[in-house]
Amino acid sequence: MLNGDNDKFLLGGWESISERRRLMVADKDYAIATLGSHSALQILKGARDEGFKTIAVSVRDHSFIYRHFNVADKIIEIPSYNEFLKAEDELLKENAILVPHASLVAYMDADIINGIRVPYYGNRKILSWESDRNKQREWLERAGLNVPRLYESPEEIDRLCIVKFQGAKGGQGYFLARDEDEFIRKIGSAKDFVIQEYIVGVPVYVHYFYSVIRDELELMGFDRRYESNVDAISRLPADLQSDLKITYTIVGNIPLVLRESLLPKVFDIGHRVVEVSKEICSPGLFGPFCLETVVTSELRFYVFEISARIVAGTNVFMEGSPYANLKHGKSMSTGRRIAIEIKEAIQQDRLREVLG
Amino acid sequence: MLNGDNDKFLLGGWESISERRRLMVADKDYAIATLGSHSALQILKGARDEGFKTIAVSVRDHSFIYRHFNVADKIIEIPSYNEFLKAEDELLKENAILVPHASLVAYMDADIINGIRVPYYGNRKILSWESDRNKQREWLERAGLNVPRLYESPEEIDRLCIVKFQGAKGGQGYFLARDEDEFIRKIGSAKDFVIQEYIVGVPVYVHYFYSVIRDELELMGFDRRYESNVDAISRLPADLQSDLKITYTIVGNIPLVLRESLLPKVFDIGHRVVEVSKEICSPGLFGPFCLETVVTSELRFYVFEISARIVAGTNVFMEGSPYANLKHGKSMSTGRRIAIEIKEAIQQDRLREVLG
Amino acid sequence: MLNGDNDKFLLGGWESISERRRLMVADKDYAIATLGSHSALQILKGARDEGFKTIAVSVRDHSFIYRHFNVADKIIEIPSYNEFLKAEDELLKENAILVPHASLVAYMDADIINGIRVPYYGNRKILSWESDRNKQREWLERAGLNVPRLYESPEEIDRLCIVKFQGAKGGQGYFLARDEDEFIRKIGSAKDFVIQEYIVGVPVYVHYFYSVIRDELELMGFDRRYESNVDAISRLPADLQSDLKITYTIVGNIPLVLRESLLPKVFDIGHRVVEVSKEICSPGLFGPFCLETVVTSELRFYVFEISARIVAGTNVFMEGSPYANLKHGKSMSTGRRIAIEIKEAIQQDRLREVLG
After folding, report:
1. Cα-flanking dihedrals φ and ψ of residue C287, to 5°?
2. Is B323 part of the contact surface with chain A (CB cutoff 8 Å)?
3. Which of A184, A240, B22, B155 is most buried, most CB within 10 Å of its CB?
């Protein structure tokens, strides 16, 4: 029944969203849907905990996971991630709100994401700020954060650098270089890279949730990634390590807590990122996001990347981190926090504020 | 009163187990017993949570642990692990079902284990497949898993290898060698070793539970081991590291989660291992088991060992991992999962299916 | 109304404490207060869970943290940590019991701490044994624990050593040296250092709670610290590592469990430390404390430091570790355990036994 409105939704403007909202309010029953990967278990579990109907859109090979854990009231199978749009009509019929995550963003072109007609939780416009390293850097710098230096070209390399590739495919192919020669030796035929100063310090991934409905920034937890082979080479004798190419493929995540005296700084940098986002990309960044930091021995946070949606590191806290559970007085995953936000938005007739 | 049946149980055949079962069903009251070490806290706690009477069989020096944590309704003290059989009559009298773990298997000879008359949870016959590296390798290869190459003799060493010793005594004495010379220099007078290709990647221990009663494979969680000194040498400057002999003594465990997109693969390799076990050692592997893997930067799982019972890494999830709690909708340790399996077996009059 | 007793409290003797207690018992309503840092979240949350009124004394910049997490019934703002005493009158009026932590001890001079008139949870006299490395060493040696060798002067250095500085400021500035030359090269103008043998093994921080009221030692959990840059250098190629100065600035903590077979040893060393403390500094060490150990590949625990109060590592278990939750049958952080101890002391009219 929503199909007739497709053209409006494709415009992506506020009018069409307002229209869509009105239609949905008449419906009363909402579903929360996500792509079956990344953090879908906690998103769907959290949605169900808050009373939503849940839908997993999954490639055929992976759908048994969502059946096994019984988190989805409905599973829509698609032949491949590229064909997500095949699930759209059914999602619209089910009155679904789509919760995006990094896999969804990684597997689909920006054009396709922008064209998704299913109500989309979060601000889609932030994607262009996030996916362009220069814009992301501008954002972080305007927020007054410490960022690693970014090099325009290999000949500028004057200290240890890390070379990264676009996309969110889990750090594959990243390498270190100390000068132009080393860069050239290692880059091969790769394109679409960025050269970043390598900051020596421990990696800390900070999970935030900025609630539009409550106008409050929350701390959802911390993790560090578990990466292959960089977290394995230290288990080799030093003489063997030098033979190896270091890689940064994300395999999993390990839970962390931070010194309590660092929490004020953690909140401060989160607030700054949100505030600047409102200026550069109204209504700004909201919902879950992550600052990927390195903390130096002087306890300075260097922010080397921002993820403008739920990160997989929150999976270590599927039952809530110490911080989130303390704040909410009950088990609170980031997935569940999203569901609460959407529920409160619906209850307060403010759903359009959390869609974008 | 079961004492008169000792001879039958020593036969270890299905007839005697069937007999034993009938006797027990008449009794109605079962106890769950284990050796006081390894994962006994969660096994006993889980059993009590499910309504069983619990018994710890413990060496005198360690029994205060099980008293302190109040997980055992009864503690049977034995002078040493070798004298486990001294507890047998009492265990039989208490109608106990013995839940084995790696310490039990490590501390007792296979002959003694095979001769245990107390009903034994799990398939004892799997032990011969597990303890013989060649048979274990055959098993894993038939399951189509990636396994590190195994070298028949030191002169074959053509790449980085790790040399391991038989038994489950926590990785003590393992060493690395790149060629025959290094092997000879390091092996000393040691015997009973295996030479395995060293796969570079992050260690991931996958905890499974295969339920015979529900005919379903469950994922109980992931950990990585915390080993001395291999997890400490990275804290030394590189020039100091080369002076050190790397050792792999297990001290503890650290919780992990894995990328959700790897879960289908994780279930797949678990299923394969169970299916092949049915062919090689009917009725096959059931209950808790662990695949000890290394995940490479290409996200390939290499399985370098299988533990055919509960592993100590499950202790990081004494209150349940995110995955197990999601599946069961409540706090679910591997210890508790075992108790549920045994309870359902009793309720469905299928106890013989989970004993072996 | 307690102000008139200030002089008595400054004497710090038992008479004055007895006096204070009587006054308080008349009052009936107690508050638990702590300095807003370190482990204040769990201390205040735990106190509230046990029915206490809670007070955070916080510098202005940090007080929003305690408001955000809603753990404090009252927040007393002070301009700087040095001016803690400005909060005293209000704390006395509120009938507060002060729970100290490492930040409180680090930020205030011993004289100030000794002069605090607010009832102080724990034995203040232990501070002099803890802060003097020679006395701490005497304590640990009398308890029969393995301790790293301590060097009186740089010329004695005959193996790998770590040079540490006094105070609890999070490991900043520590360095390694193999001989006198390296020591001189690295020490610069620093004073007030100790030279300790560097034990190769994995760091394990053991959290204990010794209950005076129940006369029982409890295990609260284990963690390992997450330190910058020492836990980051392993992510660099070996050739790059050598250029770096290793630092040990604590950034956070990672949860651990230990092999269950090590628990008897863990309890044993904890007991020994408590027993000796009764001799050297009556009534001895009580409440939460931590042994900072390194576990070697022979599974020997070397104790390199003792913290005579709650450590930040307990923050990984704000909802309780597997061990504490097992012991208590409910979620039990160290913060909550402190509150239970104080509550039972009040109920049994034994409050003076937990103050010092």
Report:
1. 80, -155
2. yes
3. A240
